[in-house]
Amino acid sequence: MGKGPFSFRRPSIRRRRPKSTAVPQSPKPIPTAGAVASSTSPPPPSTGNLIGGGGGGGGVVAAGKGKKKAAGARLWMRFDAMGVSELVEYDKSTIIKRASIPARDLRILGPVFSHSSTILAREKAMVVNLEFIKAIVTAEEVLILDPLQQEVLQFVDQLRLQLPHKSAYKTQGAGAADVNDSETHVSTGGRWLPVPEAMEGLQCELPFEFQVLEIALEVVCSFLDKSVAELETDAYPVLDELARNVSTKNLEHVRSLKSNLTRLLARVQKVRDEIEHLLDDNEDMSNLYLTRKWIQNQQLEALSGGAASNSITTISPRLPRLSSNRSASLVSSHNLDDDDVEDLEMLLEAYFMQLDGTRNKILSVREYIDDTEDYVNIQLDNQRNELIQLQLTLTIASFAIAVETLIAGWFGMNIPFTWNNKEGIFEIFVGGITVGCVLIFLLILGYARWKKLIGS
């Protein structure tokens, strides 16, 4: 800038930085081989704050020291295919990453949809919300929300009892190293099986996700059936008492009973409609086959790995074994397997029939309530008709008496006439008008009965 009268010169003052007083770090020691191995090993997957747990058959998973509870974390119970369980605390992000589900699916498991019934199929998981059972099922494990509730404990106990027995086929080929390397292998819950043998196991036993779904439907249907049985036990005596004695107390009992029946019918109807919706759509049922999709992905990875090795090396010993008639039919018939939903269809139809029977029981109770209400209304109508008849009879009698009173009022006036001086005329006159009023009453009453206005 120029040195004019209006020019300002900024002083060039430099601030000195304070000298660093940090303590120099000592050189790091050279890690040993064991330390290098431990440092390069991948960290264990974060499973949340482990609280405790147990497995089927008495096996217990030890609870580690968990970190501080994260914000928004909820209590879950994790079951694997062998029935081993543990209590964990997961937040939403952990559940989304672990199960590969969208965030909106967690709203279905929230308190807003507490009594709704939904079974959703995702790419790697199945979201189940049946009454009090809220779970996320994958091909290898199931995550149960709020497992310490009284109703959910029955579901947890059934999983512990049935999963180890139903998953016995997964222990085939325990020595994975003993199996011939020329055969394609897939992993089923920690055990590696050949593809044909794994498919045979899946054909003779339901996949893991369907085992969990079957137990959930069994627990829910048993709970609803038990509720309907209790409702029937309470309903029939109350309705019989109302039929015998129509009182305010009995009517209040029936009103409370009918409201409970309506709520229970709605809950059964929701579960039934969800199963019916799945039965009507083969694509939705096909998407629920999580284990089959997982095995197909493993087969595709094995094929892609075999093709890559074949492009680099010479003839691979695995390819002829894979191209056998049995294995080739499994690999090339994915489309046919995707359309095969017979196992799930039979499973859903069985519980659909059970829910339909439970619904019919509720409808029979409601019909009995409706019949009782009709009977009570008929009784009330009969009493109302009797009151109307009594009122009509009293009206006719009042009319006849009014005629006699009118005649007596006429002759009670202070008007002179010749009958006043006759002896004994009073008794004759009163008796005559009384007989005339009785005749009028009988005539009108007979006319009313002739018109069927008054019953006999």
TrEMBL record:
Membrane disposition: Multi-pass membrane protein
Gene3D superfamilies found in the cross-reference section: 2.40.128.330, Magnesium transport protein CorA, transmembrane region
Any Gene Ontology CC annotation: membrane
Origin superkingdom: Eukaryota
Record field: transmembrane: 392-413, 425-448
Molecular function in Gene Ontology: magnesium ion transmembrane transporter activity
Biased segments, Low complexity type: 1-10
Annotated coiled-coil segments of the chain: 254-288
InterPro entries xref list: CorA_TM1_TM2, MgTranspt_CorA/ZnTranspt_ZntB, MRS2-like
Residue segments, region Disordered: 1-54
Subcellular localization(s) per the UniProt record: Membrane
Annotated keywords: Coiled coil, Ion transport, Magnesium, Membrane, Transmembrane, Transmembrane helix, Transport
Family: Belongs to the CorA metal ion transporter (MIT) (TC 1.A.35.5) family.
Cited function: Magnesium transporter that may mediate the influx of magnesium.
Name the record gives this protein: Magnesium transporter
Biological source species: Gossypium raimondii (Peruvian cotton)
Upper classification of the organism: Eukaryota, Viridiplantae, Streptophyta, Embryophyta, Tracheophyta
